[in-house]
Structures are given as structure tokens and as C-alpha cells.
Design goal:
Keywords: DNA-binding, Transcription, Transcription regulation
Helix content: over 70%
CATH class of the domain at 70-196: Mainly Alpha
Region (Disordered): 1-26
Radius of gyration: 22 Å
Largest sheet: none
Domain HTH tetR-type: 24-84
Shape: elongated
Protein name: TetR/AcrR family transcriptional regulator
Number of helices: 9
DNA-binding region: 47-66
Order of helices and strands: HHHHHHHHH
Length: 200
């Protein structure tokens, strides 16, 4: 009678595909983090080779995750949007409303820098990709994210009660978007935005 062969100890473990997926996700996240840092770094800093090197992966891994430059730029920008939206709730639960809003606006300033870097990275011939982002939709989602902060601040008296969340997003964007400013001027502009939200 033929013996039934037992699985070899060297057989592939059922957990191997899961580990591969985990490694792939880690690589993708590292690439997005490196790309976001490059977008915020200013003109001339968006090099695919440098991003792969910063993420600790080969250029082939970068292209497997993001087959084009535009795909990487778009994914990095969207990741920045999602992080900014998620931070609003976290900040409200860890800081007083006015301080939470100050911290969120500082992160919004970083988002503005990333958006400038995105437009630069796509260059003039590729701006159609940038225009595909739903600017109005993103602004609406940001307003929804910070509305609880404004409401909490109104309840405790640290923020004006009649202020609309969409107005705050537009005010901050209007202060920061038109031109590139340094860190000191950004801080002054954000302080002016916050001062305008102080109850009379």
C-alpha cells in the first residue's frame, strides 16, 4: 500500500500571501509618504528615483504601484486630503476647540504646500490631471470635518457662534493659496484667521 505523503515542512505557509500583501501595502504607504514629502519640498524636488530611494524600494516597485508619474502625484494628493479630514476629529478629542482649530489650520497650510507641489510636478502639459480633482467636493468635506470643532468652540465661547465652516475653509485658502509664503508669514496669516474667529 502506498503511503500518504505528509505535507513537507518547507511547504508555503498559508500566512505567506498575507505577509506578501502586508509587505506590498507597507511599500505603497512608504512611497506615498515619500511622494508627499517631495510634493511639499518645492519646485524640482519631485524625482521618481529619489522617491523610491527614500521609500527604501526599487524603482520597479514604484512603477508596479504607480505606473505613471501622474498616478503617484494623484494618489499622494488624495492621501493628504484623507489625512487632513481624519485629523479634525482626532484633534477635537485631544485639544480644546480653539487649539484644535489652530492645529488643523497648520496642517491645512501643509496641504496647500502639497497642492502647489502637485501642480508643479504635473507641469503645464499635464494639468488636466490636476483639474480632475473635485475641488468643490474637497472643500465641502473639509467644512464638514471642522464643523464639530467650530460648534464645540461656540458652545464654550472660544469661537464665534455665527461662523460657517465653509467660510473658514475659504478664508484659510484665500489667505494661503494665491502665493507661496514662508513659515513665518504662514503663521502670521493663520493667527489672523484665528483672530477673526474670536467672539466679539
Amino acid at each position: 500500500m502506498n503511503e500518504v505523503r505528509q505535507p513537507s515542512e518547507t511547504s508555503v505557509s498559508p500566512s505567506t500571501p498575507r505577509r506578501r500583501r502586508s509587505d506590498a501595502e507597507r511599500n505603497r504607504r512608504a512611497l506615498l509618504d515619500a511622494a508627499r514629502a517631495a510634493l511639499a519640498g518645492g519646485e524640482g524636488s519631485f524625482s521618481l528615483e529619489a522617491i523610491a530611494r527614500e521609500a527604501g524600494v526599487g524603482i520597479g516597485t514604484l512603477y508596479r504601484n504607480f505606473p505613471t508619474r501622474e498616478a503617484l502625484v494623484s494618489a499622494a494628493y488624495e492621501a493628504q486630503v484623507e489625512d487632513l479630514l481624519a485629523q479634525a476629529g482626532h484633534l477635537l478629542h485631544t485639544q480644546p476647540p480653539r487649539e484644535a482649530l489652530r492645529a488643523w489650520l497648520s496642517q491645512f497650510a501643509q496641504f496647500v504646500t502639497t497642492k502647489r507641489g502637485m501642480l508643479d510636478a504635473l507641469r503645464l502639459g499635464m494639468l488636466e490631471s490636476a483639474q480632475q480633482h473635485d475641488v468643490a467636493g474637497i472643500r465641502e468635506r473639509m467644512a464638514e470635518a471642522i464643523a464639530p470643532i467650530l460648534q464645540a468652540g461656540a458652545r464654550e465661547g472660544s469661537l464665534r457662534a455665527e461662523v460657517m465652516a465653509d467660510d473658514v475653509v475659504l478664508l484659510a485658502a484665500g489667505a494661503l493659496m494665491p502665493m507661496q509664503v514662508d513659515a513665518a508669514q504662514t503663521e502670521r496669516l493663520l493667527r489672523m484667521v484665528l483672530d477673526s474667529l474670536r467672539p466679539a
